[in-house]
Amino acid sequence: GAETMRLEGHRGTVNSTCQIPDARLASGSGDKTVRVWDLRTGAEICRLELDAAIECLVSIGAGTLVVGDAIGGIHWLELMN
Fold first, then answer.
1. 5, 36, 56, 80: most buried, per Cβ within 10 A?
2. 57: nearest Cα among 81, 26, 30
């Protein structure tokens, strides 16, 4: 029941998270960013800024995210490993 890690950095509400293979986590926020975190260290390893608040995201492979934004956009993002 104890918190083991806290990932901080978003300046808006976190609307969506998803696990990415290789111990990574993606988070999408109302601050218009998608952030990718290393779950072994808790470090932010990538930040992507889009034109609108992030409403949802899903990982569809080792390095691919599909992101839905608040103004109807769907973004296909290829992450570096």
1. 36
2. 26
- Across the beta sheet with 24-29, what order do the strands follow? 14-20, 24-29, 33-38, 44-49
- One-letter identity of residue 19: Q
Amino acid at 64: T
Give the model's pLDDT for residue 80. Answer: 79
Backbone angles phi, psi at 33, to 5 degrees: -120, 150
- Reported pTM: 0.91
Q: How far apart are the first and last CA of the chain?
A: 32
Nearby residues of 43 by Cβ (< 8 Å), 6 or more positions away: 37
